[in-house]
Structures are given as structure tokens and as C-alpha cells.
């Protein structure tokens, strides 16, 4: 009686309309997420795909829930998958709450959108909707919606291989990710091509039907060509699995048996794929290399991360980059990838284990096994064209599942995996169960409560998604402006807009700090500017650097930006040098095996020593004496930091260079010269090294040696202002005033508005000679924002 009543309610026109809306937006996610490519954001793919995924999942869910409200009953397909989904979501939520990087885990950024809680939740919502709106009758349309856009995506990539570039990158992301996507679509295409006569004629009629037929025929050769270009063993192996499965299915089913030319082509393709798993493709078309940590390194990082955070819930979604920098093996410093930072491991499975822990991985495995079992059931229990269609669906899903064990993921692969999962479960479960809200006060109260919670969640998620997307557009404008030479004021304005729309993103605060610091440098060169204005920019820069650290203290770039800001303002702000050193030390704790950060710490100590040097010549003798000792200690610490960097990477040239500078400031010119000479032997055409060597000889009073080196620099780089500047000092001390004047005149031509150069030229022309040490000319920097 109750069941009949619920079934009658489902026939209501508004119920049917709401369910059709839910199906439509599920279909829209199938179509739009893979082809989403919008150039007005900071990154054309991931954030746009995520935004579309969120919007489609929200509207589809609202439409589906609306149908339940109109029915005044909760009618869903009977399955225990709901409980598994809830447990899986709870596990990710716990991992997110205790994450090392909150914003990244909640929303994702910089290519980590695919693993954020927002994406996981959206995918699970679509699975929930798809489970209840996908049926055996609607499945062909969903497969059609996957096939048609895929043919366009693969066609553009094939054209790009022949240097016919329409877009700067493919629609999927990394080259091998496109390869995985192509094998998935090939499995679906095979299922259509081998059953073209048995499938419903409506699937191949009209414009959409014609596009489906053409796409099915085009995808397979496009995929083979892309696989040939990439030559990645996993892709060939996936293709072999697909072909073998269709062979077995064909021989066991007379209705859909593969015969004649199709059989011959399939056998030839199978043989070729088997060969290319082990042998490189001849005449391989070059493609950019795709780098990732080895499986062993990934496993080691995973175990260290879990042991220091949580074995059950990991370090938080999207935090793999933090873990990699902290636990990177020191032996990698001997490779060319010593400073490369990876934001994912060798596989999606290991990335999940590291960032979300064993509990989440276990629940995910149960979910995958459940979908796999249901997939096998629908294939084994079907016949004819339906059998091949279900087989193609299962194989497409299986390709993605297997790829997660050996390769990473992204927004497209993640979304397609969950959409295919929804389709498999949707046609697998047919029995429904229902609860009428109007038959029980408890059920009605519970329904109202759940409805309010869902409504509030949707409102919050929708608002945050829209606000975040608007902020990214503003940030993209700031990046474009800075790289095209736009005004610093305009860049700051756009960054402020981005930050006002999304105050949780540390990237905006970090870049604002840099932009304000750069602006203060511009103003310092203008003597007519009120010093208070300059200090206001310095204060804004410092505040934003501090804010970036507060938002994401475990992101090493934030600690470095804060340290750099304090280092730059050391001449103007008392005690800034100490804060800079503390920030550099914090950075080292986040990446203890990277020599670059010990170098930065050494530079911080050098800046501190320089600041103390300016105090030593003051009138306060007590302060001057204490500054002498403090400066010696700072130089000793700088030398220790540089030596630590060299112990981690013995051929690290920048550390050698700054170690020489530390020795020079310490007064140990012989050691400084020896260091520079050892570097110059490996880099004889490095003008900066030769300049430094000439400068050291000048300090030693070896004018002839200094002249030789500096003249060599001028020959290497005639427009190198500092080389001519110090060469003029050599000539001046040798009594060659005409030579000194000539060099200063050339320096003035290169720097026409520099007052220091003009004054020195006038002094030389007046015949006034001095042996005072020259100060290097300031180098011009450019504003270039980075993520």
C-alpha cells in the first residue's frame, strides 16, 4: 500500500520535471568538465573544471531533493553504498580539519583542486544523484555525452602534435593524463562500434547521432596516435586490457562476435600494443617529459609523513608538496632535480595515503571494490548489445581505477571516474525503498532538519565558490599586468581586489607583500617623495607577509617572503634582521635537506652583518664595541650556514659565491679569492664571478690583477655598469684619470639619471682623486608575481 502510494507520487509532473533537471545537470557535468578551458583565470584548467563541477553538483542535487520534497517522501535506490559514502566523506573531513594547510585542503589551488574536500564532496554528490537518476534507458545518452567532446579534445591534441596549435595546452592537463583519458574514451568507443547495429537507432539519428558515430570512429585512431607519441607503458597496458576484454566477450557471445576486418584490425592492434609495452615506439614524436618522484621515494615520504602526523588521516588533502619538501631524501641533491618540488607522488593511491591516511584509503578501497563488483554483475547478467555497452562502461572505469595505482590524477580524471561510478551503480541497483515524510512526525522533523542543513551548506559553498572564482580572475589580471610591464599601483589594486574576495588565500597576501616592497623600492629612488609614504608601503608589505604566514605557516614560500621582507627593510627598521633570521630558520625546518634555504639563512646573516657595520663607525663607543662582536658572530653564522649548504650539495655554486662574500667581509680576502677562483674555473664566462674577483683584488690593493679581471668583464659584457664603475676606480688609483673619466662617462650613458655617477664624473673632471672604496651601483629589478 505504502509502496503504491509512493510510486503514484513519483508520477507527479513536478517530480518528473525536477528529476529531468537533475539528469540534465548530471549530463552537463559529463560534457563540460572535460572540455572546460577558460583563459581568464590564473590557470586555464583546474579551477574552471572545479567550479563547473561544483555548480553542476549543486543544481543537480537541488533538483533531485526538490523531487523528494514534492513527493513528500524519501525514495532512493536500496544500497549500502550510502553509508560507505558517508564514512568516506567523514574521513576526508577529519583529515581536512587537522590539515597542515587548511585552505589547500578545503578548496585546493595551484593544481591541487582535484584532491580538495570541495571536489571530493562535489563528486560524491554527483554519485548520489547519478545513482538515483541514471537508468538502463538513459545510459546511452550519458555515454554519448562523454564520446562527442572527447573526439574534439583528442583531435586538437593530434593537430598540436603536428604543430597546428589552437590552444596552448590540451583540455585535460599533463600529457600522460590525456593518454589515460584517451584509453578511457577508446573503451567506450569500442563498445559502440562493435554494437552499432544492435544499439538503439535513436542513438545514431539526428545531429547528435551523426556526431556520436563519427566520434566513435575517430577516437580510436586519435588515441592510438597519442599513445604512440607519448610511449608510456601504462597506456599501452590499459589498451591491451581493453582489447583483450572485448576479445573474450566476443568469443563468448555470438550476437556481438567480432568478425572479418574488425577482428583482423583488433588482432594487429593487440600485437602492436603488447610490443610497445616493452619496446620504444620507432620514430617517437618528442613530447615534454613528465616528472614525478619514484615509487620508492613516494613510499618513504608517505611513511615519514604518517608517522609524524596521523596514520589514520594523514597530513591533509593537497599537502603533498609540504611533505615532499620536509622529507625529501638528501641523495636527490646529487641529481638535476635537486630543487624540483613535487605536489603529488608517483601515483594517486600513494598521494591519497600520504595526505589522507590509512582510514581514508581503506574506505576508498571498499568503495572501489563495491563499484567493481557491481560492474561485473551488470556485465555478466546482460546479453547482446547491452552486454557490450556495459562492458565498455566497466572497462572505461577500470582504466581509471588501474591508473590510480600507477599514475597521478587531476580534475578531469577524478570527475570522470566518479561519473562513471555513478553510471555503473545507477544501472546496477534497481530496487527502491521509500519513507513518506507525512506519515510520521519524526520523519517530517528529520527531513526538515536535513533540508535546512543541506540548504545552508549549498548557500555557503555556492557563495564561497563564486567569490573564490572572482578573486582568481582579479589575481590573473594582476599576473598579466606585472608580466607585461604594467604599473605597480595597478598590480597592487588588482591584488587587493583578489584578497577582498578571498581573504583565506595565502598566495594573494604573499604577492601583495612583494608588490608593496617593490613599490617602496621605487619610491626610495625618488627623493621628492615623503618618507612617511614610503614607510606606509613598507608597513603594508610587512603586514601582508605576516598574514601569509598566519594563513599558511607550513608553506615555505610564505616563510621566505617574510624573511626577504625583513631582510630588505633591515637598514630602515631596528631589529628586522633578527626577524629575518628567525623566518629563514623556520623555512629550514620545513625543508631541512634543501641547501637553498641554508644559503638564504647565510644571506640573512650577511645582511645583519652589513647593518651592524653601519653602527660601528658611530659616536657611541659602547654600542660600536658590541656591534663589532655581533658583526663577527653574524659573519661566523653566515659561514656556517654556507658550509652546511655545501655539505648538502658540494657543487652548489651560489653557496660558494656567498661564502666568498662572507670571507671578504670577515677580512679574509685570500680565502675569498680562492673560493671565487675555484668557481671561475668552472664558469670562465660568468661576468659576475669575474667582477667579484676583480673587486676582491681591488680591495687587496692588487691593482694590476684587478685591472686584468675587470677589463675581461667589460669585454664579456660591455654594458655591465658595475664592471666599468670599478674599472674606473682602478684607473683612478693608477693615476689614469682620462681612462677613469672615459669609463664613468660610459656608465653615465647606461644610467643617465644617476646622481652618484654624475657627481663622481664632475669630481674626476675637476682633477680631484680619492682612494675611497666605491659602492656598487644598484641593479634594476622587475615586478614579477608568482604563485
TrEMBL record:
Give the organism, scientific name: Candidatus Uhrbacteria bacterium GW2011_GWC1_41_20
Q: Which UniProt keywords apply?
A: Membrane, Repeat, TPR repeat, Transmembrane, Transmembrane helix
Start and stop residues of the TPR repeats: 687-720, 721-754
| Claim: Transmembrane is one of the keywords in the record | yes
Pfam families in the cross-refs: TPR_16, TPR_19
- Superkingdom field: Bacteria
Query: Could you list the residue ranges that cross the membrane?
Result: 21-40, 52-70, 82-102, 114-134, 146-166, 178-196, 203-227, 233-251, 263-281, 356-376, 388-407, 413-430, 442-464
SUPFAM superfamilies, A to Z? TPR-like
Q: What name has this protein been given in UniProt?
A: Uncharacterized protein
Amino acid at each position: 500500500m505504502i509502496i503504491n502510494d509512493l510510486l503514484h507520487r513519483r508520477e507527479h509532473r513536478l517530480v518528473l520535471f525536477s528529476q529531468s533537471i537533475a539528469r540534465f545537470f548530471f549530463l552537463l557535468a559529463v560534457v563540460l568538465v572535460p572540455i572546460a578551458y577558460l583563459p581568464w583565470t590564473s590557470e586555464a584548467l583546474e579551477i574552471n573544471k572545479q567550479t563547473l563541477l561544483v555548480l553542476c553538483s549543486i543544481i543537480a542535487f537541488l533538483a533531485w531533493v526538490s523531487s523528494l520534497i514534492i513527493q513528500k517522501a524519501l525514495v532512493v535506490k536500496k544500497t549500502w553504498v550510502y553509508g560507505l559514502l558517508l564514512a568516506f566523506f567523514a574521513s576526508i573531513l577529519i583529515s581536512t580539519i587537522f590539515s597542515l594547510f587548511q585552505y589547500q585542503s578545503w578548496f585546493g589551488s595551484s593544481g591541487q583542486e582535484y584532491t580538495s574536500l570541495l571536489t571530493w564532496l562535489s563528486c560524491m554528490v554527483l554519485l548520489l544523484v547519478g545513482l538515483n537518476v541514471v537508468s538502463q534507458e538513459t545510459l546511452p545518452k550519458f555515454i554519448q555525452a562523454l564520446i562527442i567532446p572527447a573526439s574534439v579534445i583528442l583531435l586538437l591534441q593530434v593537430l598540436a602534435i603536428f604543430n597546428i596549435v589552437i590552444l596552448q595546452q590540451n583540455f585535460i592537463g599533463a600529457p600522460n593524463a590525456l593518454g589515460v583519458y584517451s584509453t578511457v574514451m577508446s573503451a567506450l568507443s569500442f563498445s559502440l562500434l562493435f554494437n552499432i547495429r544492435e544499439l538503439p537507432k535513436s542513438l545514431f539519428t539526428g545531429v547528435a547521432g551523426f556526431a556520436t558515430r563519427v566520434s566513435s570512429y575517430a577516437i580510436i585512431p586519435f588515441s592510438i596516435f597519442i599513445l604512440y607519441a607519448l610511449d608510456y607503458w601504462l597506456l599501452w597496458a590499459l589498451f591491451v586490457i581493453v582489447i583483450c576484454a572485448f576479445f573474450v566477450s566476443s568469443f563468448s557471445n555470438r550476437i556481438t562476435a567480432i568478425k572479418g576486418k574488425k577482428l583482423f584490425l583488433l588482432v594487429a592492434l593487440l600485437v602492436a600494443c603488447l610490443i610497445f609495452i616493452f619496446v620504444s615506439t620507432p620514430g617517437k614524436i618528442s613530447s615534454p617529459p613528465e616528472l614525478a618522484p619514484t615509487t620508492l621515494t613516494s613510499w618513504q615520504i608517505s611513511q615519514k609523513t604518517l608517522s609524524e602526523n596521523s596514520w589514520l588521516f594523514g597530513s591533509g588533502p593537497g599537502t603533498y608538496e609540504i611533505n615532499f619538501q620536509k622529507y625529501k631524501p638528501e641523495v636527490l641533491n646529487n641529481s638535476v632535480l635537486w630543487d624540483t618540488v613535487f605536489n603529488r607522488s608517483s601515483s594517486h593511491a600513494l598521494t591519497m595515503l600520504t595526505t589522507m591516511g590509512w582510514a581514508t584509503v581503506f574506505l576508498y578501497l571498499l568503495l572501489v571494490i563495491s563499484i567493481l563488483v557491481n560492474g561485473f554483475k551488470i556485465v555478466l547478467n546482460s546479453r547482446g548489445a547491452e552486454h557490450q555497452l556495459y562492458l565498455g562502461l566497466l572497462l572505461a572505469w577500470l582504466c581509471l581505477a588501474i591508473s590510480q595505482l600507477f599514475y597521478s590524477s587531476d580534475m578531469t580524471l577524478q570527475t570522470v571516474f566518479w561519473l562513471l561510478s555513478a553510471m555503473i551503480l545507477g544501472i546496477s541497483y534497481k530496487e527502491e525503498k521509500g519513507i513518506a515524510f507525512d506519515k510520521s512526525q519524526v520523519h517530517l522533523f528529520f527531513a526538515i532538519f536535513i533540508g535546512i542543513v543541506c540548504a545552508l551548506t549549498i548557500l555557503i559553498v555556492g557563495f564561497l565558490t563564486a567569490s573564490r572564482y572572482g578573486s582568481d580572475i582579479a589575481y590573473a589580471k594582476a599576473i598579466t599586468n606585472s608580466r607585461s610591464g604594467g604599473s605597480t599601483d595597478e598590480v597592487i589594486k588588482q591584488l587587493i581586489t583578489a584578497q577582498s574576495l578571498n581573504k583565506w588565500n595565502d598566495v594573494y597576501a604573499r604577492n601583495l607583500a612583494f608588490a608593496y616592497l617593490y613599490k617602496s623600492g621605487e619610491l626610495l629612488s625618488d627623493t621628492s617623495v615623503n618618507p612617511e609614504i614610503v614607510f606606509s608601503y613598507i608597513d603594508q608589505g610587512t603586514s601582508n607577509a605576516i598574514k601569509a604566514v598566519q594563513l599558511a605557516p607550513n608553506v615555505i614560500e610564505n616563510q621566505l617572503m617574510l624573511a626577504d621582507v625583513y631582510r630588505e627593510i633591515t637598514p630602515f627598521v631596528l631589529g628586522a634582521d633578527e626577524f629575518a633570521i628567525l623566518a629563514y630558520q623556520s623555512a629550514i625546518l620545513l625543508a631541512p635537506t634543501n641547501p637553498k634555504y641554508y644559503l638564504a639563512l647565510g644571506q640573512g646573516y650577511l645582511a645583519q652583518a652589513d647593518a651592524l657595520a653601519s653602527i660601528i663607525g658611530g659616536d657611541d663607543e659602547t654600542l660600536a664595541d658590541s656591534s663589532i662582536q655581533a658583526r663577527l658572530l653574524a659573519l661566523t653564522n653566515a659561514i656556517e650556514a654556507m658550509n652546511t649548504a655545501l655539505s648538502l650539495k658540494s657543487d652548489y655554486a651560489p653557496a660558494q659565491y656567498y661564502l666568498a662574500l662572507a670571507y671578504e667581509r670577515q677580512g679574509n680576502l685570500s680565502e675569498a679569492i680562492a673560493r671565487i677562483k675555484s668557481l671561475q674555473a668552472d664558469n670562465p664566462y660568468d661576468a659576475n664571478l669575474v667582477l667579484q674577483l676583480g673587486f676582491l683584488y681591488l680591495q687587496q690593493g692588487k691593482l694590476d690583477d684587478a685591472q686584468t679581471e675587470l677589463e675581461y668583464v667589460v669585454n664579456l659584457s660591455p654594458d655591465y655598469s658595475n664592471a666599468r664603475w670599478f674599472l674606473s676606480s682602478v684607473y683612478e688609483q693608477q693615476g689614469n684619470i682620462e681612462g677613469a673619466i672615459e669609463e664613468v662617462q660610459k656608465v653615465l650613458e647606461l644610467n643617465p639619471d644617476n646622481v652618484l655617477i654624475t657627481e663622481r664624473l664632475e669630481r674626476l673632471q675637476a682633477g680631484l682623486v680619492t682612494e675611497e672604496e666605491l659602492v656598487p651601483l644598484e641593479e634594476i629589478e622587475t615586478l614579477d608575481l608568482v604563485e
